[in-house]
Amino acid sequence: MDFSSCFLNTISIFLIPLFSHFAAASGGTVSITQFPAFSTQRYCVQECIYSGRTNGAPPLPWSLSCNQPYSDSCMCRTDLASSASSMLADCINSACSDSPPDITSAQSLYSAYCASSLPLVSAIPTLSIESQEAFSSLRGCVQDCIYSGPSDGSGALPRALQCWGTPAYDGCVCRSDMVSTANSFLTICASKYCSGNTDDIASAVSAYTAYCDGAMNKAAVTAATGGGAAASTAASTGARNTGTSVKATGSASSSPTSSSTGAPSSGKGGLSTGAIVGIVVGPLCSILVAGATIYMRCIRHKKKMEVLETQSPSGIKAWR
């Protein structure tokens, strides 16, 4: 083995991990579905953001021409924020029957996620109205309009509100903009299955209202004090997007721009320049030190081989 082979083979041991590390650090994979704020969205909203499609492509990254593996550095690019906002508005207009609160909620979720300002919580409050004393006092025909047991999945009321999931979440079922829809459903359902009994209709609405008032008050107290099982922590220390934080400005009437269907523009996403420098310089300094050490060892090895060669019998060269 000659001097150049010795040096190149050894230094490659250090270079390969460096480039692997740099590639991995260029942008985290999309994890928006892991946040409580996503779980509490209505099903029609989730479907427009990152739920499965028949072709397996999540709607939002796909509309932005972000290829697999779907990364934050692509989905959260500041130059694509307007396209993302427009796509969400158009999709939710269709999927959620023109619901402005859902559009606003989805756009806020996207903006908060890309700005790394979403909280992580240790527990998400789930719907537990069936365990309340007021629920047990309801007639069966009323209970069935709300929740009729484990075999009912998420329950009749959550399904009517598109708050699907097992279990359903308070943050979706008790949303202030859903109260009117919930009351209308309970009124119609209780009237149908309880033979129009006005007391049953009133008790159904009252049970729902009382439960949600308590659930929302508890959530507000927990958020204000920072205590309890749902104490939040920072989602991360740096924004997922580059430049200034994403501002979702699309409205219900906006339409996708060319960026939503074409290839992403040349604007760069991912880590900031300072972060990239920090990632590269640290390992690079270590490599330079290691390279210098290897170089000196190879020099000594070469000199040793030259000495052995001069001491070897004529015509026989020492192995290098």
From TrEMBL:
Molecular function terms from GO: metal ion binding
Compartments, as annotated in UniProt: Membrane; Secreted
Residue sites binding heme per the record: D170
Ranges that cross the membrane: 274-295
Parts forming coiled coils: none
Cellular compartments per GO CC: extracellular region; side of membrane
Domain CFEM: 113-239
Membrane-related topology note: Lipid-anchor; GPI-anchor
Domain of life, source organism: Eukaryota
Endpoints of the signal sequence: 1-25
Disordered: annotated span: 233-267
Keyword entries, A-Z: Disulfide bond, Glycoprotein, GPI-anchor, Heme, Iron, Lipoprotein, Membrane, Metal-binding, Secreted, Signal, Transmembrane, Transmembrane helix
Major subcellular site: membrane
PROSITE patterns: CFEM (PS52012)
Compositional bias annotation for Low complexity: 233-266
Record-stated family: Belongs to the RBT5 family.
Protein name: CFEM domain-containing protein
Biological source species: Glonium stellatum
